[in-house]
Amino acid sequence: MSRLIVISNRVSAGGGAQGGLAVALTSALREQGGIWFGWSGNRTDEFTGHINFQREDGVTTATVDLEDQDIEEYYNGYANRTLWPLFHYRIDLAEYERDFAGGYQRANERFADTVMPLIEAEDVVWVQDYHMFPLGAELRKRGLRNRIGFFLHIPWPPRRLLVTLPEARELVESLLEYDVIGFHTDEWLQSFCDYAREELGGTLSEDGVLEIGDRRVRLIACPIGIDAKDFAALAASDKARETYDLVRHSAVGRALIVGVDRLDYSKGLEERFLGYERFLTENPHERKEVVLLQIAPPSRASVESYQRIRNALEGLAGRINGEHAALDWVPIRYVNQGYSRDVLAGVYRASRIGLVTPLRDGMNLVAKEYVAAQNPDDPGVLILSRFAGAAEQMKDALLVNPHSAEEISDSIRQALAMPLAERKQRWKALMQGVQDQDVMWWRRRFTAALFAEQPPVLLRSVP
Length: 463
What we know:
Strand content: 15-25%
Number of domains: 2
Structural class: alpha/beta
Radius of gyration: 23 Å
Shape: globular
CATH architecture of the largest domain: 3-Layer(aba) Sandwich
CATH superfamily of the largest domain: Glycogen Phosphorylase B
Largest sheet: 10 strands, mixed
CATH topology of the largest domain: Rossmann fold
């Protein structure tokens, strides 16, 4: 049986606090056998290509250290200051530096040189996310003829935005060296096809095969999910029940609204605070009946744009609390630290509203975790941005435009007033989708395409 070689920027196999992606990839590696290769997260004075092998929980990992220059140019630079903002429609924040692009290419060449000797003739390679767009092409240059797949975990931007990237053409052409490319939604897939057709002269067949010159690559829309059964079990764990009791006690009978997001400008946190403030202003009779708990662990602290968003949110939370708080009530609890998944499951279950309002998101698994954690007899209400990838599947949430403070305010009021029967009806439909298209469904769907000589046709047609 063919082994699976998973390649990603960071490696997260084994352990008990894994997210959905790590759970799915670890499961695939146990089933197929193989190796998970990537950056260790550590620095080295000189890149030597030395590989640190480990085996944990039935999975072999292989990691390498990177030099400071690689980390600055490849990771902090091109990945997080060029590609991330551009692919989240923030060209005003994207930094186009030749050193960044050069470091990104150099790091991917080093990854290719290092992993190439580990790949055997019958292995199948699965590359993850925007850190490694050119890795497939680099492996092909080194003579690899195995099947290689790529999955993008963030949005693919419209052509009019992508053309602002100086290396756009080279980036897309490098992706044509993969056999299968996966996107979370049809929208991201169609944006990729639009660029390929208009800029490279590509054609797309009805079964999702893109042809450009002598290259043929299968494109699939394949939304990632969570381990729904596992997360529902977490919500019933002792730690989750303890957290539930703590949170409900601290709310003193008030309805809790929860947001859980990495501290990132794509998550719409400023707009969320302003929408909540609009609700407080427009509904003075209800304002002391609610509390917004925003959990926002810091990320990429060395990148200036992330420092700015943290400062802005701290100022905004302070202003809103200063204007609206009473002696016995503070409208926003703003927490800059992360929590374990069982604690978060308890927080979700204790919350009347899950407020998930990114300005742009590849998927957003918090929305699915919130649904999975609910009490079936008294579920909360999910308010979800129309611009999250999850919105394509989760039509029974209250969908909002996160740029509109009025829509956020109206949805909060609607959620608080929603009858129990409607809450149950919406939750059942959402939970069914979360269970049916969970993270294992996602993994099986992509690997079926990747391992097949003729991958299966799309679940949805592509215009």
